[in-house]
Amino acid sequence: MKPASRLLLAALWAAVLVGAAVWIGAHLELSGDLRRFMPTARTPAQKLLIEELGEGPGARLLLVALSGDTPATLARQSARMRTLLRDSGRFAIVANGDDGGLEAVPERLRPYRYLLSDTVDDHDLDRHLLADALDQRVQDLGSPAAELVEPLLGRDPTLETLRLAEAWQPAEAPQKRHGVWFDREGHEALMLLETHAAGFDPSGQQAALAAIRDAFERTRGAGDARLTVTGPGAFSEQIGGRTRREATLFGSLGGAGFAVMLLLAYRRWQAPLLAALPVASAGLLGLAAVAALFAADGVHGITLAFGFTLIGIAADYPIHLFSHLQPGVPPRESARLIWRTLATGVASTCLAYLTFFVSGVDGLRQLAVFTVVGLATAALTTRFLLPALLAPPRDDIAGRSSVVRMHAAIERLPRLAAPVVLGIAAVAVAVIVFVPGALWQNDLARLTPVPEDALARDVQLREALGAPDVRYLIAIQGADAESVLQRSERLRPALDALRGSHVLAGYDMAARYLPSIATQRARQARLPDRAALRTELAAALAGGPFRADAFDGFVDDVQRARAAAPLRPADLAGTPLEATVGGLLMAGDGRATALVSLSGLADPAVVAQVAQANDVQLLDLKQASESLVAEYRARVLWALALAVLLLAGGVYAMLRNVRRTARVLAPMLLATALVLAVLRGLGVELNLFHLVALMLAAGLGLDYALFFDHAGEGRAEQRRTLHAVIVCAISTLLVFALLALSQIPVLRAIGGTVALGVLFNVLLALLIARRPAAQA
What we know:
Layout: H1 3-27, E1 30-31, H2 44-54, H3 57-60, E2 61-67, H4 71-88, E3 91-95, H5 113-116, H6 119-122, H7 127-141, H8 146-153, H9 160-167, E4 176-177, E5 180-181, E6 189-195, H10 202-220, E7 226-230, H11 232-266, H12 270-293, E8 299-300, H13 301-310, H14 316-323, H15 331-354, H16 362-384, H17 401-411, H18 418-434, H19 452-465, E9 472-478, H20 481-500, E10 506-509, H21 517-526, H22 530-541, H23 552-563, H24 577-584, E11 585-588, E12 591-599, H25 604-613, E13 617-620, H26 621-655, H27 658-681, H28 688-711, H29 715-740, H30 745-769
Parallel strand pairs: 1-8
Antiparallel strand pairs: 2-6, 2-7, 3-6, 4-5, 9-12, 9-13, 10-12, 11-12
Helix pairs in contact: 1-12, 2-26, 4-10, 7-22, 10-11, 11-12, 11-29, 12-14, 12-16, 13-16, 14-29, 15-16, 15-26, 15-28, 18-27, 26-27, 26-28, 27-28, 27-30, 28-29, 28-30, 29-30
């Protein structure tokens, strides 16, 4: 093909890729639901953990602190921020201790106030209670509270609405100064927010955080106030931003290093650009395939990150082609000569990744589709499109003096006999098994890149605000919402006793906001009818300053409450209580669960005993997450075991020789054992990301061994293969060694594992898979 035609084809290919990228960017739906990467929950604790990750109130809490200015200034700013945040519509709860507002009790719930409040549990709504209330209202009208009390007085002389608003504040509220919450030292104004957006909704959480920052800037003025926001949503944004920054930095450095490596290796400025075409094609088609097959769920961000990392294998395919080009031989012929070996490696690796379909995890299925389609695309474009863009080289890689010297040096290396290989494997397995310390990392919290000082700050604010413990929950299960609400009410005296003995600082439950139907009916029965209430009210008004007809609205509300159908969870839709109760009361499929969140838990064992005595369960979500991770890992390990069998089957199908198959697979298997031994020796606890990285390194190692076997005994072909493998290994090492320097545990685990795997795979492929060169 003429140079002008090659240039036109390259431009057309690049234009198609740019167009595809633009289209995918416009139509791609990204998902941040971590539950897509979780196996099916089996135990009650695991099921609650999955719910809490996204829908639970703990996942939606944001803790806010204002500091750096005078307490009075901070209090005014807190009050103004509260108004702005409530008006933003992004928060189910905006609490800062300012009880003056009645937004917590919307108008349509106010007639039910005597059904929701416990006032009539111990006192009849008689002349004595009403007289005491009216005497107090007279005093209120002569105080600064008159502006708040007067609008309520005619319908609510007992101020039950304010009692409910105060009762629905967080269970263990901090001290107040200037009418809002402050920490113990009085230096920080505090706020507790609960977002409407689920915890797994990154865009919703980011929008909520943006609303907080905007409200802070609008209310700060020229002051010196500082804003601190912690909680799962804030950490998620911080992790995402940090991951993007590091991925961009390392990706840019790795890409630049890869380009320089290809320029040095092939001495052609076109090499980096041409090598990028199959890799870009792989990424875009892989992404398009996932988007098409999982359109209903969206492409998970983790799939995207992992997928493009795994597509790094595809960068080796054009390198093998470049190194095998020969003067006078059409590039298409060179591609044909290496195709059988290249296709074997691709097919075997794709078969291995298809095992993720048996893992039972949606996220891993997405990853499998991305990788299989991507690798197949890279291989096919390298075989059928890339050669058309290449011109035969002026020199043969095999004849370069540097390659000849390197090959001669490697020829002097001994080849490892089978007993030596087995001995090294035995030592590696012994290290893996017998080195003391935990083998697996089950604690998800230790994978977070959130700095220690940020976590400590979150604990500090959580304690100051009395926010619920994120680890322990009491679960009350039953056939329907009514049964679990009744059992919650029966549990309250025991929890109050624990709070009195300082085993608990506080607790929260759905029954605190929505009493059971039985309790509401009992309260209805204690409300007087219209005639009786008018008689008792007249007696209470006797001799007082109020007119008899001033409280007609109050009489009407009580009668409405007497006749109303009891409130149910569905009746809270559209009110501030909807999200609060919804996070603590889950019903459906013939089962219901009420959660009791705990704050200031001092002795879990005592709480567990009380829970057991009341026939409910104290759940340890940390333990649940660890068991879920263990089950997840077991599925992945089974998938990897099946992947090894498929890899072996794919290689044997091509080679049709047991000894050659063993010689190709041995470096990969031994390298995997050595990587695990090194990690264990360094005290590294293994997690899922190490396993995925080991699979990536194994795919790279399989390619190295296959090409060394393909080279046979011919010196020229061995030198070309050696050049290709060394270039592949150095470029891969460059990218993943950079990742190993990351401060993010996930990236560090992948980078360090793959870098070690590449080193061991190259060395062992040279010592095991390479054949002795024929004598010249």
